[in-house]
């Protein structure tokens, strides 16, 4: 929030001239009849996507040359806001002259970029990005009709953020690689959630199958689980370094050395010691201990005995251990 | 031609109101709390303004009408005040309101829910009206406050305030009404309606923006929202915006004087506009025509999405409003549109036209022409009007 956000303007002010012109005068609005398709010696494809009750609905017509799979004519009808109509218009235009396989590669990002007046300024405000998503989906629907396949077959990956076209696999990978901990970080890295925001968490204007908050939580949980497994496996094989151990493993490792090398000596003198805590104080690991029995109050607890404990632990566990009696 | 048909959002300041306000900027600019002639010189007009406000809503001289910055502040003062007085310090922990209130009410209630308060949001019926018996059914022993709007901003539907007031009185529960959309459109009588608190904003009835009022019935205690000086009897601190207060008072005077005009001439123009739109096939008045403010009509035009309709109207100089999600910055449909529930298409095809006494016959004729042309153009583009809407899971 800053000065520019304090007086919120009309979303219409953020529409590009292209959006305005295409809304006022769409060039590819209309339909292709069976007669017209025959005239072109082409196959007529009619695809519907969306519904009025959802706020957006579009019907796409293609006349496709079956010999070349080339889209000869492309028209649309659209129920929706200004940006939905403008997106449908540019989408229909982008299809013309392309083969069906080429058309399927048109994304909502392509549609939005084609509506820009200049390459660096978005054609629509962020919350309107979703209006071009429908244009993308209806192309897949039309191609599926033409090829007689399911439209899902064109989507190899599960898309979580439709506006920025970010897949589930990409999100998981980015979270892992960069050790991301917040949704804001995910948005910074991928742009997912930066536009209409519906994919961030439930309650947005569109219901989603999966949300960024869940993906983050699940991936973080998977990462923690894997970390534990790695630690457990390494521990079992005896190859785990102290810095990779969990807290419990560190305590166990230290306790084992204490039991074997330190405590027998202390017990012989009627004393003992216990571990209170281990704190990471990089590069050191501070081991807080308490002397028990005869050791408690013994003068050498802070000199010779302490030195002996510390040097054994440094030698057998980790050279950065510091022992601090309380 | 420019035609403003969004008077439920805000209204033009009546030039008479403006003239009454004008001296308080550069001539009578004294602080009303100062002892000297500059300050005291503001008092006569402030008292006159109060007289108009008191008589305008039939408040008793023993009641309080606190001048605040807008209806939102007024509503926050009531709900948070009751929270502090009755909920934090007592055994009561429950507020009743409706699903179709202005966000000033619902967002404040949501905030209090986060503080542990129990809130019931009552649904409206198929006509968008809250039925009084519903309130009765939900009052509990620990209900501290009932807050129900007098008239709905989207549909103009009038709620049974008098009956709800009686129910609250019998149950010993405080009753607040947001009358922001009622003042200047229908008679508002706080005594007849058994109101304990009432809120309104001047800019909805041809007064200035940035000033509103909170009516508090005699004897009802309320903790102020703003602490500071002793202005407004200690119930709302801060130097009073004298010009705005005077403006609101005179706007109230004129609003009351024009109630008959509102009920006849404004209604006639609204009905003319509505009838002309309803001549277009597959159009319907959302919430029905009965029992609503005389200036408002919310119409669903099948196959025409709300924002695209507003766009075409705006291109031709006509300003209206829609509760469609696509026209709002946060892409959330107006809850009033969603509350109708049974027909989700209405949420996307509703356009609200709200008139005022400043609209003329010529303007309405022009608007009708623009609306019909816009519907023709947009239905020609529309897929859902040309074909039966496909069944599809929303969310794409």
UniProtKB/TrEMBL annotation, chain A:
Ligand binding (Fe cation): 54, 81, 131
Pfam assignment, any one: NifU
Keyword check for Iron: yes
Keyword Iron-sulfur found: yes
Required cofactor(s): [2Fe-2S] cluster; Fe cation
GO biological process per UniProt: iron-sulfur cluster assembly
Keywords: 2Fe-2S, Iron, Iron-sulfur, Metal-binding, Nitrogen fixation
InterPro entries recorded: BFD-like_2Fe2S-bd_dom, BFD-like_2Fe2S-bd_dom_sf, FSCA_dom_sf, N_fixation_NifU, NIF_FeS_clus_asmbl_NifU_C, NIF_FeS_clus_asmbl_NifU_N
Annotated cofactor note: Binds 1 [2Fe-2S] cluster per subunit.
GO molecular function, one term: 2 iron, 2 sulfur cluster binding
Domain NIF system FeS cluster assembly NifU N-terminal as annotated: residue spans: 14-149
Residues where [2Fe-2S] cluster binds: 161, 163, 196, 199
Residues of the BFD-like [2Fe-2S]-binding domain: 159-201
Start and end residues of each NIF system FeS cluster assembly NifU C-terminal domain: 254-323
Record family assignment: Belongs to the NifU family.
Function, in words: May be involved in the formation or repair of [Fe-S] clusters present in iron-sulfur proteins.
Record's protein name: Nitrogen fixation protein NifU
Annotated organism of origin: Malaciobacter mytili LMG 24559
Automatic annotation (TrEMBL), chain B:
Residues covered by the Aminotransferase class V domain: 3-366
Protein's UniProt keywords contain Iron: yes
Catalytic activity: (sulfur carrier)-H + L-cysteine = (sulfur carrier)-SH + L-alanine
Coiled coil: 252-279
GO molecular function, one term: metal ion binding
GO BP term, example: cysteine metabolic process
SUPFAM superfamilies, A to Z: PLP-dependent transferases
This protein's UniProt keywords: 2Fe-2S, Coiled coil, Iron, Iron-sulfur, Metal-binding, Pyridoxal phosphate, Transferase
Gene3D superfamilies membership: Aspartate Aminotransferase, domain 1, Type I PLP-dependent aspartate aminotransferase-like (Major domain)
Stretch forming the signal peptide: none
Root EC class: transferase
EC number from the UniProt entry: 2.8.1.7
Record's keyword annotation contains Nucleus: no
Cofactor: pyridoxal 5'-phosphate
Family membership: Belongs to the class-V pyridoxal-phosphate-dependent aminotransferase family. NifS/IscS subfamily.
UniProt function note: Catalyzes the removal of elemental sulfur atoms from cysteine to produce alanine. Seems to participate in the biosynthesis of the nitrogenase metalloclusters by providing the inorganic sulfur required for the Fe-S core formation.
Protein name: cysteine desulfurase
Organismal lineage: Bacteria, Pseudomonadati, Campylobacterota, Epsilonproteobacteria, Campylobacterales
